[in-house]
Design brief:
Thrombin, subunit H; 6-stranded antiparallel β-barrel; 10 helices; 21 strands; 37% strand; elongated
Length: 395
């Protein structure tokens, strides 16, 4: 019996070995191996267009629409300052030996970075006035790496908006959305050039929501910010002038400044502000119609809304109008006889109800440097009229 077992076991082991070898190296196994090899080759040749639809969403599609029209703005400005003579400013010697004893005006070129976006196929670009308003040279870098010299068409210092022009056609451009219809909580997408990181000729993208609308701020450095959009999308130095978009890929604002908190940090803390698109469109049209410099007038005063407490303090029996809280020395306002605590009631015959109406009235009047602005004021119970002759904004 034992003599029969050994041959039978040998046969069984041989059969099992044959089955194993067939599974590992047979036609079916070779077919599976070939399929795997094909899959590997295909994976190595994947392109962006081959990304599964499941990975695409409203945000990625919106970025795809807007990104080609976002630009980096490289600006060269000239800073002027007085260098005093180490020998003192002696009237006699400074007259005859000014190069030694006289004060000198030093011009120092300063480079800075910002963001912008193309708004038309013929090359109009929008950015902040504080980015490009006083530029001597402006170089625009597009998302495909193209570098172009831009011309400053005009600026509105008060609105903090500048319009540039590129000498090129058939450019990608953004579509404006309706900033008046923004919903608190809807997606907000910020694109731009934070910290100069326009890496590989591509803008940085950050995502958040619209945190609030209609945010108003007192005049800052001679600029008025009203009806601002607030977002928690990260905005950092260099983002100024870049677009804030909705999930449809429409530009609803221009990123302008951030709240840094009491720490004074220059980085984002999740509270950024953008000029609404509807206001941007108004200013663009005004700049186009006027040309460079026409709208850069200066009054030299700032005013705030009148609260019941303020009205009580100046013995004014209303809260209608705005009260002057600052006047710059030798400014057009001071020359016209405007004083602190004067209540402005109307401008060129148009009634003023609050600080927001001041901005809209000035925009609607389309004033130019050299124009006269009639100001009706209340002062200590009397109604007076003053005339401010508008001067060019000093830089």
């Amino acid at each position: 019996m034992s003599k029969l077992v050994q041959p039978i076991l040998t046969i069984i082991i041989g059969i099992m070995a044959g089955i194993y070898l067939y599974q590992e190296f047979g036609p079916q196994a070779r077919q599976q191996a070939d399929t795997t090899a094909v899959t590997v080759v295909h994976a190595e040749s994947l392109q962006v267009t081959d990304i599964p639809t499941s990975r695409r969403n409203a945000i990625t599609e919106a970025v795809k629409k807007v990104r080609p029209a976002v630009v980096s703005i490289n600006v060269t400005k000239v800073k002027k300052y007085i260098q005093h003579s180490p020998f003192g400013n002696d009237p006699f010697f400074s007259r005859y030996f000014p190069e030694i004893y006289g004060d000198r005006i030093i011009e120092q070129p300063i480079q800075s970075l910002g963001s912008g976006f193309i708004i038309s196929e013929d090359g109009y670009v929008v950015t902040n006035n504080h980015v490009a308003g006083n530029a001597e040279e402006i170089i625009v870098v597009m998302s495909d790496g193209t570098q172009l010299t831009a011309k400053l068409v005009g600026s509105d210092h008060v609105a903090d908006i500048s319009l540039l022009k590129l000498d090129k056609k058939n450019l990608p451009f953004v579509k404006f959305g309706d900033s008046d219809n923004m919903l608190i909580g809807e997606w907000a997408i910020a694109l731009g050039n934070p910290f100069g990181l326009f890496v590989n000729n591509s803008p940085t993208v950050t995502i958040g929501v619209i945190s609030a609308v209609n945010r108003d701020f007192s005049p800052m450095e001679g600029r008025v910010y009203e009806d601002m959009l607030q977002t928690d999308a990260a905005i950092n130095p260099g983002n100024s002038g870049g677009p804030l978009c909705n999930a449809a890929g429409e530009v609803v604002g221009m990123n302008t400044f951030i709240y840094t908190g009491s720490s004074g940090s220059s980085g984002s803390v999740g509270v950024g502000f953008a000029i609404p698109s509807n206001y941007i469109k108004q200013i663009i049209e005004k700049i186009k119609n006027r040309g460079k410099g026409d709208s850069e007038f200066w009054t030299g005063l700032s005013a705030i809304d009148i609260t019941p407490y303020i009205a009580l303090g100046v013995h004014y029996n209303s809260t209608k109008g705005v009260i002057v809280n600052q006047i710059v020395k030798n400014s057009p306002a001071e020359k016209a006889g405007i004083e602190l605590k004067d209540v402005i009631l109307s401008l060129n015959g148009i009634d003023i109800s609050n600080s927001q109406s001041v901005r809209y009235v000035l925009n609607s009047l389309e004033l130019l440097v050299g124009d006269k602005l009639k100001v009706k004021i209340w002062r200590n119970g009397k109604i007076l009229e003053k005339v401010i002759i508008l001067e060019k904004e000093p830089h």
